[in-house]
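Input record (one chain):
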Amino acid sequence: SNRVQIKFSNTLNPMNREELISSIKRIDTVLLEPTVDRFIVCSLSTGDGYWAFLDSLAGVDGIDMAEPYMRFVDSTLCTYGATFVAAFEPTVTRAQIDSLASLYRATLVRELDGLPNVYTLRNTKASGRRLLEQANLYHELPETRYAHPDILCRIEKHAYTLYDYYSVLQYHSRKVIGQFDTASVWDFAGLDRPVDVAVVDDGIDAHFDLPAGRILAGMDFNPDPVDTNPIDSDPRPGPEQGHGMGCAGIIAAGHSADSSAQYDRHTAIFGINPHALILPVKIFDDDGGSGAMTESKLSNALHYAWNSSEMLSCSWGWSRKPSCCVEDIDTQLMRAYQFGRGGKGCPVVFSSGNAARYPSYIRPVGYPAQLPYVLAVGASTLQDQKWDYSQYGPALDVVAPSGETGYYGDVWTLDQKYDLGVNPNYTGYWKNPIVWSCERYAPGVNDPNVDCRFGGTSAAAPVVSGVVALLLARNDTLNVETIYEIIRHSAVALAPQVPDSLTGWGRVDAFRAILSIARGDVSNDGNIDISDISALVDFLYNSGPPPFPSVLLADVDCDGYEDIADLLALVDNLYINFDPLPLPCFAY
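The corresponding structure, as predicted from the sequence alone:
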């Protein structure tokens, strides 16, 4: 009673249509632009005298039809145009069907393919009946089996779709998640378990895309003043800092799966793992520097991080290993590898460093990224080339997409809200105008809640951290070395032979990483059980649909083929010898 469908005359141009809508005082808002048969949906300021109002609209010059906007009994909104479907009895001839159409002022459109004597017909203004009345009239005829409005089918792709405002500009994160909005990593089941990720950096604060409920308590190990407060429980960043926010956004910014949010800049950025919980471990002072951070404090911070979370993400370090004072750091990271997560090991991701443009003696992977018990991440371009600044060498594990360094990158992520953070920064000499302009990437965009200039290996490392968090969400029994092996072997090789000193095992790939541990989950419900046998039989022998989001879910034995051997392997795993499936599987 408070919505209506209107079809305007073809003679009206858009301006005339707007003027006509404005002249009908009872129309409040245009809810849907032209849908079926160019009908638009409008809301009304009042529902009083609804049917009489519809009759009055039908007499307005410039309006061809006015139809009620209905709901199904399950409250689903019902949209339709000027056509209806009528199924005639098999004995009814085409001549009779034409005669009925002429009698009731309907136009025959076409016979439905494969359905004899079932036709689409178009209602006309000359009939004097609304579409539902016309369809009901046909429904009651002795010549028909049924008739109904040709209702708009609100079909949806069975794919994970995002409506985050700036998602189209997040080229770097999109490059590793599969086919965006079609068959991405988030279409795999079992990725919604919250994973605690310690972001060891310059602090985290609540954001529209990272609400307080997804930020754990955290600690500040470099507070000011240090003489009175060596450690405090306020790990928020300084007013002009945003490095940690940028890292956390890449890892865990929330997803907007509701189309109504796509015009809301507050739901702006998507993260690799939208269910991750962020533990802020602040090691930089409010000015973004090392402040009073000593080796012992850094050691304590790392211990707190791995002892209080499931994994660490670190986009900092030294361009080369210091000649002294790192024994405690080495030990803490080794202990994270050995004893974290109850003995399964705590994955630690480190950026490799940005100093490769400088003299060769500081080009190798920096410290602590060079340690064998952490994942060292370099930076690659969107064209899958190593960035010239990205430090490299035998210790490099993988690369991830990133942009330029020094606030000249093009990676979109979170900043602090409003006038806090790196955008705007009132004292930075490189900011003119005061508020960053992202015109280079998005004309007209100047949003202080986002950072559109993140880059360096600082932005590459959290991409990998997000992938690790997805692996832990899918299977938290994986030990740390298996996780490292999955990240390495599922990477897209960027060199003829891997590992390669420039790009390691290649560019990280979230879709392939999860696929490597999801083989056998043919029904894609997060579990391997009898439903997978049914789905595999249906696919192999009954022309059933291929497994989604990848047909390789059916390659249970990882031999590169989907065949009866996969069915036998699945039955053996579940019911005969209980032999484990060959996971992770790296047959891509």
